[in-house]
Amino acid sequence: MTITGSKKLQQAAGGNTDVALAARGLGHAYHGRNVLSSIDFEVRRGEFVCIVGPSGVGKTTLLRCLAGLQASTSGTVMIAGEPVTEPVPGVALVFQDYSRSLMPWASVLHNVTLPLRANGTSRAAAREEGLRALTLVGLDDVAAGMYPWQLSGGMQQRVAIARALAYNPALLLMDEPFASVDAYTRADLEDLMLRLQRELSLTVVLVTHDIDESVYLSDRVIALNGSPASVADIVEIPLGAERDQVGTKSTAEFAALRGRVHALIRGSRGSADATEARE
After folding, report:
1. Alpha helices of 107-179 — where are they, by DSSP H?
2. Residue 214: left (phi > 0), alpha (psi -120 to 50), or beta?
3. Less Cβ around it within 10 Å: N or C end of the chain?
4. 95 lies in some domain
């Protein structure tokens, strides 16, 4: 069952290390052109980390390598201390385009439970897990019986998140998950993810090009720049666990952190150092 795979990953991660995910000298090339070069970072268990960079820098390529969906051309990815060569049980992925990741001819509940059923979970157990996951994202039994095309964009992305949560993941990877919704819905979904990450003790790695989003959500921000892309710096985000869309984003501390990340992804190391010195 899928849940068993997740427990194995959690147990492995709980052994001799707190590192849930690590990239070591990771690189990737398409047709001889390097896209990623010497990517190095670690993600600790229970941490919320955002990877931020400009459009086209290679963020999605990096996430696909982390998920085991795409082999890197150099370096390694480690999950729970084990090298990744293919998708790993206990790792779930949420894509940007919910309209393409959900099956329009299947009910919401069917969409959520499909990975569980494919991994041998009984129909009754899959239904129970699916309804639990839908409740976690604020959807009810009525929504469970509807089709994705009958829901708003924000609700469809909640379904995609519920499908990942039903998998009971030890590690959740998210690729620009809120880029296709309006600003109000985006803020609502950001707060949903903060709540779920705390309540479920999830380890989350979220890719985004939105600097404000990366600072608001993260314990740490990994800033990418350059061509091929590399890690410009990793920024600690000491904003505390309780965050508010208006209050947190109105603080001088948030503004300083946003300015520092912005300078890093533009390649302005000196500007980033100056911002850090003022903090």
Report:
1. 108-118, 123-136, 141-144, 153-166
2. alpha
3. C
4. no
Q: Does residue 251 fall inside a structural domain?
A: no
Q: Can you tell me the mean pLDDT for 259-276?
A: 70
Tokens 């590399």: give the residue. Answer: 230
Question: What token pair was written down for 101?
Answer: 């990741």
Say which DSSP state 87 is in.
-
Residue 277 above 50 pLDDT?
Answer: no
- Sheet strands (E) in 33-160: 33-44, 48-52, 74-79, 82-83, 91-94
| Six-digit token string for 97 | 């385009």
Do 198 and 78 share a structural domain? Answer: yes
Both tokens assigned to 179: 């880029």
- Mean pLDDT for 3-23 is 59
Rg (CA), the chain: 19
Shared domain check, 85 and 19 = yes
Give residue for tokens 């509807």.
Answer: 146
Contact yes or no for 56/29 (Cβ under 8 A): no
- The span from the CA of 153 to the CA of 166, in Å, is 20
